[in-house]
């Protein structure tokens, strides 16, 4: 979250394979709305059948690609118990890369700017 708030997300590099991950993600999920994720859809039998092959293609190039990680459900808000879902590392990379490249994380930088330290802080 701190990185998203301090760096222009369009220039943020998450892995050495960002271009490949993003390209493949949008080929497999061209119409997936990434602004507000529907966890039930992602984890439904149909969702799992679509996500599984996507994830597996990265097993040899992304370390711990299937490890669980937290992902913000709503990209306009910060991490919280209500706004976090459990996803695999490659799902996190794919969705956050898309949010960065498609400008959806720009609002986070404006909304949660780091506060400047003052002498009294």
In short:
With 121 residues, the chain is mainly alpha-helical. It has six helices and two strands, in the order ααααββαα.
Word description of this protein:
This protein is mainly α. It is 43% helix and 8% strand. The chain has six helices and two strands. Strands 1-2 form a two-stranded antiparallel ribbon. Helix 2 packs across helix 5. The radius of gyration is 15 Å and the shape is globular. This is Polysaccharide biosynthesis domain-containing protein. Pfam families: PBDC1. It comes from Cotesia typhae. InterPro entries: PBDC1_metazoa/fungi, Polysacc_synth_dom.
Strand content: 5-15%
Q: Which consecutive residue ranges, at least 5 long each, have pLDDT under 50?
A: none
Sheet having the most strands:
2 strands, antiparallel
Query: Going across the major beta sheet, what is the strand order?
Result: 1-2
Residue-averaged pLDDT: 86
Q: What is the radius of gyration computed over CA atoms, rounded to a whole number of angstroms?
A: 15 Å
Structural class: mainly alpha
Shape: globular
The end-to-end distance, rounded to whole angstroms, is 21 Å
Helix content: 40-55%
Number of helices: 6
Total beta-strand segments: 2
Order of helices and strands: HHHHEEHH
Main attributes of the structure:
121 residues, mainly alpha
Q: How is the topology of this model organized?
A:
Layout: H1 2-6, H2 18-28, H3 39-43, H4 45-56, E1 68-72, E2 84-88, H5 89-101, H6 106-111
Protein name: Polysaccharide biosynthesis domain-containing protein
Domain Polysaccharide biosynthesis: 1-109
InterPro entries: PBDC1_metazoa/fungi (IPR008476), Polysacc_synth_dom (IPR021148)
């Amino acid at each position: 979250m701190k990185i998203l708030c301090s760096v222009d997300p369009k220039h943020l590099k998450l892995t050495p394979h960002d271009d490949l991950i993003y390209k493949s993600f949008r080929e497999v999920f061209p119409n997936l709305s990434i602004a507000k994720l529907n966890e039930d859809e992602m984890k439904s039998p149909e969702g799992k059948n679509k996500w599984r092959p996507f994830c597996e293609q990265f097993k040899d190039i992304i370390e711990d690609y299937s490890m669980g990680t937290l992902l913000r459900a709503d990209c306009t808000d910060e991490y919280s118990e209500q706004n976090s879902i459990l996803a695999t590392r490659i799902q996190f990379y794919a969705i956050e890369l898309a949010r960065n490249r498609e400008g959806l994380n720009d609002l986070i930088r404006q909304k949660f700017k780091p506060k400047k330290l003052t002498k009294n802080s």
